[in-house]
Amino acid sequence: MKVKVYNQKKEKIEEIELPKEIFEIKLNTDLVHQVVLVQAANQRQGSAKVKARGEVRGGGRKPWRQKGTGRARVGSIRSPIWRGGGVTFGPSTEKVFKKRIPKKMRRKALFMVLSVKAKENLLLVLDKLEIEKPKTKTMVKVLNKLFLKKGSGLVVLSKIDKSVILSINNIPKTDTIQAKDLNVLDLLSYKYLVITKETIKIIKETFLK
Q: Is 5:196 a contact under the CB 8 Å cutoff?
């Protein structure tokens, strides 16, 4: 697949051929959905916690005798049916949300999403993305010419560039990610994908081992 390469002013410079083993993969929605579920589950902290009846302080003495009072049998005032008692089936830190999925499936799903972005003209290839010093105003001008007025975008960097990262941090609906950390969930969270020619090489070297 051939795509246009732009400069930061969105002026066409040349055309390049994208690696077909990455950008021309047929979409399998079931696989992509499965990978998204796994990634979302692995991001869950699992820090929600409530106390069960055995963890609530107090309630060691039986409120009243078992028989003869005419009232229901009660063993503890910390029963889940009492105010201030424990919680039945509440969230616990013991629950593990982590899931695993084979590397080949993750990478195949990643290539599928990249292919869809390229096919639907949501992939913007630049010759380079540079900024002298961190300045949000300057970066907004660059991104406005690329995609910012049309929707959200993810900027993929070949390496850590503090000037670019700091300039983009305060721009709504926009984020950066290193090429080696590309994943399906982040790609699907943004409409446009901005990469450079150098980034394409990093993606190829990282995910086609």
A: no
